[in-house]
Amino acid sequence: QVQLVESGGGLVQAGGSLRLSCAAPGSIFSINAMGWFRQAPGKQRELVASITSGGSTNYADSVKGRFTISRDNAKNTVYLQMNSLEPEDTAVYYCNAVLFKAGLPFGPWGQGTQVTVSS
């Protein structure tokens, strides 16, 4: 079964940084845009950032200038560098393949990784 594995979450104080990683099967990763999503308690899952196989990126307004998405095509891994974290960034973070222009995910979801930002 195809599986995405997210890691790197944790507890951090406001203003701190975390780097998330997502290992994806080559069948998903190699030709697709990839995205990071997050879901806070009581809220819908939202797209945070996405990146094409060629490296074009897109960000939600709420994270522009603070988060950076990148990918290592040789390792089938996508990263999310999160700086200047705010309590509002607290959520479970997931990665998935995305339709880049529409920002819509497709493919199976992984377990996600919890990010908690304390004030």
**What fraction strand?**
over 45%
Largest sheet: 7 strands, mixed
Task: Determine the fraction of residues in helical runs and give it as a percent range.
Answer: under 10%
| Helix/strand structural class | mainly beta
Number of strands: 11
- Uncertain residue ranges: none
Instruction: Tell the overall outline.
Output: globular
Mean pLDDT: 94
* Helix-strand topology string: EEEHEEEEEEEE
- Please give the radius of gyration in angstroms: 13 Å
Q: N-to-C terminal Cα separation, in Å?
A: 39 Å
- The number of helical elements comes to 1
Keywords:
mainly beta, globular, 119 residues, 7-stranded mixed sheet
Summarize the structure.
With 119 residues, this protein is mainly β. Helices cover 3% and strands 50% of the residues. The longest helix has 4 residues, at 26-29.
